[in-house]
Amino acid sequence: LHPMRIAGIGFRAGASEASLADALETAADGLPLDALATLEDKAASSLIRALATRLRMPVIAIPRARLGGIETLTQSPRVMGMLGTGSAAEALALAALAPGARLLAPRALSQDRMASAAIATGENQ
Predict the structure, then answer these.
(1) Is the CB of residue 32 less than 8 Å from the CB of residue 124?
(2) Could you tell me if 103 and 3 are in contact, meaning their C-beta atoms sit under 8 angstroms apart?
(3) What is the pLDDT of residues 10-68, one digit of tens each?
(4) For residue 5, which of 36, 29, 26 has the smallest C-alpha distance?
């Protein structure tokens, strides 16, 4: 049994499914993943749903309130102001697996900088 690997995905309004896929492929670097995690208010987005369907993965919806105070490797002042954490993607991945989850690397950005993804590993609680 391998530890769970969850991809946290953050994206801006105006992102495309290709933006999300680009960030995810860069972050995952070929590793098998178990699920995608995104903000609760974005979980119903056709973009994340299309990506999840194509990859045959569930989407975990994380409430904004769960992200505040999560320590991340990346520190974005913009994201800190909006969510109370340094990186949406990193915090989403960690929140989906907490407690005891760890990030495999800092978040990766899509080439158009419209989406970010980070992979966390740990035991799903």
Answers:
(1) no
(2) no
(3) 999 999 999 999 999 999 999 999 999 999 999 999 999 999 999 999 999 999 999 99
(4) 36
